[in-house]
């Protein structure tokens, strides 16, 4: 993929830079903008390269599968004004149990650093062992937080649409 990416950058860099100069767009780093352009029109760029290389339709399909089919989904940017999502009941449980668990681990293993994966495994085990009655407390906290989130989202949607 890097070969195609570099090929595209070399091919369109001058046109792109002329475009941003003409449009009075200010980028402190043209490479970042080119990278964004790469991800925005990935399949089209692969087709353009394939055309330049005089590839057959089978080769184009192969290129698209290789470079577009396996492309990781781009994460949508979160609106900075959007309300914080609600915690699940498991995370409320973790907030209560984690400090004691870390303290116990440090007492049993002095001088050894706490491994997050070990804490996470132990939290998962303890959550599975909890009875429904014990989980109910955390479920109620999560439902209150969910209501808070829904109210804030309604306000957010009214304000920002």
Structure description:
The protein is mostly helical and 161 residues long. The chain folds into two domains: 2-69, no CATH class; 89-160, DNA Binding (I), subunit A. Helices cover 74% and strands 0% of the residues. It has helices at residues 2-22, 30-40, 42-52, 57-69, 89-108, 116-129, 132-160. Helix 3 (42-52) runs antiparallel to helix 4, helix 5 crosses helix 6 and helix 5 crosses helix 7. The chain is elongated.
Order of helices and strands: HHHHHHH
CATH-defined architecture of the largest domain: Orthogonal Bundle
Examine the coordinates and then state which fold CATH places here, giving the name of the CATH topology of the largest domain.
DNA Binding (I), subunit A
- The gyration radius over C-alpha positions equals 26 Å
Overall geometry: elongated
Instruction: Give the C-level CATH assignment of the largest domain.
Output: Mainly Alpha
Number of alpha- plus pi-helical segments: 7
GO molecular function: DNA binding
InterPro entries: HMG_box_dom (IPR009071), HMG_box_dom_sf (IPR036910), HMGB (IPR050342)
Organism: viral metagenome
Keywords: DNA-binding
